Amino acid sequence: MSAVVHCARGWLGAPWRHLGRSLAAVDCIGLVVLAHRATGFDVPDPAPYARDPDGAAILRGLAEAGARRVPPGQERPGDVLVFRSDGVNGGHVGILAERDGVLTVIHAYAPRRRVVEEPLAQELAEALIGAWRMEG
Questions:
Q1: 3-state DSSP call for residue 84?
Q2: Which of 48, 51, 97, 114 has its CA 20 to 30 A from that of 18?
Q3: What is the pLDDT of residues 32-65, one digit of tens each?
Q4: pLDDT exceeds 70 at position 1
Q5: How far is Cα of residue 61 from the mean position of the Cα atoms in its chain?
C-alpha cells in the first residue's frame, strides 16, 4: 500500500472545513497537501484561496509541486485525483486508493462534511478529470 494512502486513511472521519489544515478539520486540498508532506513530499500549500473552486490554481499547484499527469489506465494508489466540481474543471481533489480490489478515493468532501473513503464510481467517476503523480 502507498504510504500516502496509509497516511490519508488516518484522516478518515475528520470534519470538513474550508481551509482546514488539522485533524480537527480539513478540506480536500489540505488533505492532499498534508498526507503528501507527512510522507516526505515537499508540496506547497496554495492557501489562502477563495471558497469557490479555482481549478486552474489547483492544476498549477500540482505542476509546481512536481506532479506529472498519469496516462489513463496507469493510475495507482497514492495518485492525486482531480475532479470537476460545480462545473469547474479541477475544483476538487482526492487520493486514489484500493480496498478489497475496488478503486476508491479518499477525500475531504464538502457534501459528506468529513473525510471519507468511497468507491470511485458513478458521480465521482463521471467528474474525474485525471490523475497526477508526485515524483520523488
A1: strand
A2: 97
A3: 999 999 999 888 887 777 776 666 777 777 888 8
A4: no
A5: 12
For 50-86, give one letter per residue: b (16+ CB within 10 A) or e.
eeebbbeebbebbeebebeebeeeebebbbbbbbbbe
Tell me the three cell numbers of residue 112: 459528506
Q: What gap in Å lies between CA 107 and CA 91, rounded to an integer?
A: 13
- Short-list 116, 96, 87, CA closest to 26: 116
Query: What's the pTM?
Result: 0.91
Residue range(s) defining the domain that contains residue 120: 3-133
pLDDT at 48: 76
Output the domain CATH number for residue 81.
3.90.1720.10
